[in-house]
Design a protein that fits this description.
This protein has 91 residues and is of the alpha+beta class. The chain has two helices and four strands; from the N terminus they run H-E-E-E-H-E. The chain is elongated.
């Protein structure tokens, strides 16, 4: 005859094993996303300009990026330090 205590212990053990497997899978998925290379396209738009309101700033490795009108642009460190989110910029 199975008592409530042994039944509860079995359920708890199964839950803990499932939780451990789930967290391990999530950890490996997160690490695999960090190992993906960052693809940067270089386009020489000499004569054109970038203008709009900065909606985001991010440092990715050694690259300084800003987001303007849902487009991400790589800029130098000095401009990155000067610009704040919400600023209107024109390069």
């Amino acid at each position: 005859m199975v008592t409530l205590r042994s039944r509860g212990e079995k359920i708890l053990k199964r839950f803990l094993i499932g939780y451990a497997l789930l967290t391990t899978c999530l950890l490996f998925m997160q690490r695999s996303q960090l190992d993906r290379p960052l693809l940067v396209y270089h386009a020489d738009n000499q004569g054109s300009e970038i203008k709009g309101i900065v909606s985001g700033k991010k440092k990715i490795g050694s690259l300084y990026t800003i987001t303007i009108n849902d487009n991400v642009f790589v800029i130098n460190e000095q401009k990155y330090q000067k610009i704040k989110i919400g600023d209107e910029v024109k390069f």
